[in-house]
TrEMBL record:
Identification of the protein by name: DUF2971 domain-containing protein
Superkingdom as given in the UniProt entry: Bacteria
Gene source species: Flavobacterium gawalongense
Length: 233
């Protein structure tokens, strides 16, 4: 279950397709634990993750002159927020396969916005939101800071290709310590609509994935990648 926040935007159509590209070990961990791994926000490759744009930062600095703890709180809050990233796209993305998988191995989970919402299990210890990322010019544009989730829903324009939707968990109100990340309870069968296997993977790898999914008691629809289609001449 997730919390609704009228300030956080999402595609209106709950059938909007989203993808998660991952390697086999992370996929197996998801199936075996039936928990979704979320990365701590300050561990992302993008050093700007969870930070503010320059106009917003200037405003926060002014507010911090009389209250230095105000700025420190925003800095340390990044250690209390975990994120699971999903990619909005009607179709598979060649670029996403390249970025998030290696050695022609890996999988893509196909889901929808509605499935993400329904797959989240109620958490009593922390708040969760699902929101679409806004891509802005960090030198010129303003990020509102009246809501602690907002810094995590903005990224620089150079990341626009990600077309990202995020599940965000915030444990700031309790004593949970996030090291590299956080695992949250999910309904696996609701979360996963289809699985696509890397288009350049070998047959033994495809058969291995199919066999592992079956042995673990799941019957997901496993699709042949559209990028693997035979050439017609």
């Amino acid at each position: 279950m997730y919390l609704n926040n009228s300030n956080i935007k999402l595609p209106e159509d709950s059938n909007t397709i989203v993808w998660k590209y991952l390697d086999l070990s992370k996929f197996l961990d998801l199936l075996l634990s039936q928990k979704l791994f979320m990365s701590r926000s300050d561990k992302f490759e993008d050093q700007y993750e969870g930070t503010f744009s320059e106009p917003t930062f200037e405003e926060i600095k002014k507010l911090s002159i009389d209250n230095p703890e105000f700025l420190n709180y925003y800095k340390t809050h990044r250690e209390k927020v975990a994120i699971s990233s999903w990619h909005i796209n009607e179709y598979e993305s060649f670029a996403m396969w390249q970025i998030f998988t290696q050695n022609s191995e890996g999988l893509a989970i196909q889901s929808t916005i509605g499935r993400l919402q329904n797959a989240l299990q109620p958490e009593t210890n922390f708040n969760q939101y699902i929101g679409e990322v806004n891509y802005i010019d960090y030198k010129k544009e303003y990020i509102p800071f009246d809501d602690m989730f907002f810094p995590f829903l903005f990224k620089r324009k150079s990341f626009q290709y990600e077309r990202e939707v995020r599940i965000i968990s915030d444990v700031a109100d309790n004593s949970i310590k996030i090291n590299d990340g956080l695992k949250i309870n999910v309904d696996i069968n609701e979360l996963i609509e289809k699985i696509y296997i890397h288009p350049k993977s070998e047959n033994w790898y495809k058969n291995l994935v199919i066999q592992l999914v079956k042995q673990l008691g799941f019957d997901f629809c496993i699709e042949k990648s559209d990028l693997e289609s035979d050439i017609l001449i």
